Structures are given as C-alpha cells and as structure tokens.
Amino acid sequence: MAVADMAERPVKDRAATAARILAAGKAVLAEDGFQHFGINAVARRAGCDKQLIYRYYGGLNGLMEAIGGDLGDWVKTHIPEDSGGMFLLTYGDLMERLALLYLDALRADPLVRQIAAWELAEESEQVRRLSEARSKALAGWLERMRGSLQPPKGADTATLNALVIAGIQQLVLASVTSGRFAGVSLKSEKDWDKVRGALKRLVHGVYG
C-alpha cells in the first residue's frame, strides 16, 4: 500500500466515525430525550468506544455544540434560500414562504420536533443551545432573503414572527400527540392544507 493511501485512510476513518457519532447523538436525542443523552448511550448507538466521543468532540458538551451546528445546516437544507416560484413582492410574501417551509420541515423531522417540545418542558443549558442555534439560523434566512422588502411601519416583527413560529410548532407537536388542537383536526393532508391556507391569511393579514 502506498504511503499516501495509508495517510488518507485514518483521515477518512476519523471523519466517518465522527459522522457516525453525530448521527447517533441526534438519534438518541430524537428517540430517547435528554434524560437518556449520555456518553454510554451515544457510544452504544454509534457502535464505538466512548473514548472516541471525547477524542473527536471533547465530550457531551462538544457533541451538543456539533448537533447545534448541524441544526443550522438543517435550516439550509429544508428552508432553501429561493422564492420557490413565488413572487416575493412584500414582507408578507416572504413570511408566507418561511412559514410554509418551516411547517413542512418540522412535520418531517422528529429531532427538531423534540427540541421544540423540550423548549416548553424543561430549562437547561443543552436545550437553550439547540433552541438558539435553530432560531439564529431562521433569523439569518429571513435577513438574507429580505433584501429591500420592509414590514409595515411600526410592526413589531420580532414578536409577530415569534407568534407565527410558535403557532406552527404547537400545531405540529399537537398533531403527533393527539392529532388535533383546539378542535382543529391535524391528521390528514386535507387538514394540513387548511392550516397552510390559514397561515397565508394570517401573515398577510398582519403584514399586508
């Protein structure tokens, strides 16, 4: 075997193992929650020695930071920076785009749903880090996509947008636990089409 090949293999092995640990950490969080998020649990899921978690991530806190960074990539993947064929003529159009993308992305991802649920259920440094990573990525998307679009004068965009995001999260979480919220069915795609229509009316009612 060539010397170059021998040097390349450890780099590839390290990258593959680090990726496997990261995936295992996300899986443990999504399926078992923070109460079961530990070195041993992640190592078992990854099929590796727990010392490798310390070597590659510096321990659980470093792994949590990596998962937080991965949430930023999640936003880039699931909430693309394009108009999706829409004509974004107003700030309301922009918020409609973000709201609908976030709704569908949250419905499809159990880890991010878990994080949204933990934000309501517990106060911890780990939850705060993951919540802030997602919020920062969403705010960055909005800022980059906004361009010259401006909300109506005097609109408290931070609070209004938080209410829209919170409403989306509550409906998605309720759909998983009970399939309905406040008398609104959340079981079929027809139900979700109604939600999408209501979201459009809501954001345009607020922002024009």
Automatic annotation (TrEMBL):
Coiled coil: none annotated. InterPro entries: Homeodomain-like_sf (IPR009057), HTH-type_TetR-like_transc_reg (IPR050109), HTH_TetR (IPR001647), Tet_transcr_reg_TetR-rel_C_sf (IPR036271). Residues 38-57 bind DNA. Residues 15-75 form the HTH tetR-type domain. It holds the Pfam family TetR_N. PROSITE patterns: HTH_TETR_2. It comes from the Bacteria. The keyword Transcription applies. Gene3D superfamilies: Tetracycline Repressor, domain 2 (1.10.357.10). GO terms for molecular function: DNA-binding transcription factor activity; transcription cis-regulatory region binding. Keywords: DNA-binding, Transcription, Transcription regulation. PANTHER family: HTH-TYPE TRANSCRIPTIONAL REGULATOR BETI (PTHR30055:SF234), HTH-TYPE TRANSCRIPTIONAL REGULATOR RUTR (PTHR30055). This is AcrR family transcriptional regulator.
